[in-house]
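This part of the workshop introduces the protein records we will be handling. A record pairs a protein's sequence with a compact description of its fold. Backbone structure tokens are a discrete shorthand for how the chain folds in space. The question running through the whole workshop is how a given chain folds. The record below serves as our worked example for the rest of this section.
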Amino acid sequence: MNGKESTEQKILKAAMVIFVQKGRHGAKMQEIADAAGINKAMLHYYFRNKEKLYAKVFHNVFAKIFGSLHKIFETDESFENKLTNFIDQYTRLIAENQQIPLFIMREISEGAEELKPIFNEILEEKKFALPITFIETINNSIQKGEIRKIDSRQIFITIIGSVVFYFIAEPILSVLLKVDPDFQRENFIEERKIIVVDIILNGIKP
């Protein structure tokens, strides 16, 4: 990795943290520069303004979480195996990058109007193939009789929400869950993967 890439990654990581803490409108370029350990002039060298930096962070969010997950649905595995693998990998990615769902929720709470053109750009560049491959998988699985006829959009939203909610609400949920003295977070997350797959499958089987 060269110095330019290293500095850019530091900026993007710092920007993610500041955007989560203060939102797109509340974040200041100087704060991001300070968090990245560089001066403001250097920050502007890499990203001319906050809007360009924000757009890059948002692109990275979807590239990191959804960039390769669509490949799961391009295999010849059964739908059950595809679903199990997807939920496993998606859960792991969210667990390792918990700032990402917080970032998205923060933006949605601020109206998300500025997200729409960025998201449309991602779709046009075909960097976000997951919805397409997922819908194709659902339709093929319906034709094969693996699952009953159902709106693929509803299933997609249900899966995404079922996985991500725990991590968004964890600060509150942890208080309830730790009532159990034997509670272990890692074990609970692994168990949740199995439960989510089970609930989804039993809801859509013929």
